[in-house]
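Lab notebook, bench 4. Still working through the backlog of constructs that have no structural model yet. Next entry is a single chain of 116 residues. Request: give me the structure tokens for it.
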Amino acid sequence: MKTCVGYVRYSVDVPHMIEKQKMLLVEKASQLQLELLAIYCEVIGDTQPVQDRSKMAKTIKYIENVHAAYLLVTNSNRVTRSNLGVAFFEETILKPLGAELLVCNEANFIIETPIE
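Model written out:
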């Protein structure tokens, strides 16, 4: 079974939004038959660069230590608001670790269902 690590972020202290993101990650990991090893949570503004987010740094270090296949997020803007920034993050941070970014609410999931 492939493994993943979740990361949730919210820019203001709204606990129910964090819990909603966590629930979505658990649900998606289960649907995709991924073992969700941990979920890191951060309440910080999106103007903070990725490298200045302490929980994101811990998330990346954990992915490296356990050789997780994926970083699972609810939306690409949990990483950064810019598409170029997301691509740069994937290429320079995740790819060297052998990991990929999976985004729950975007059409990059292929869920196979039995044909009846």
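Notes after review: Strands lie at 3-10, 35-43, 70-73, 100-103. Helices lie at 15-31, 54-66, 83-94. Flag for follow-up if needed.
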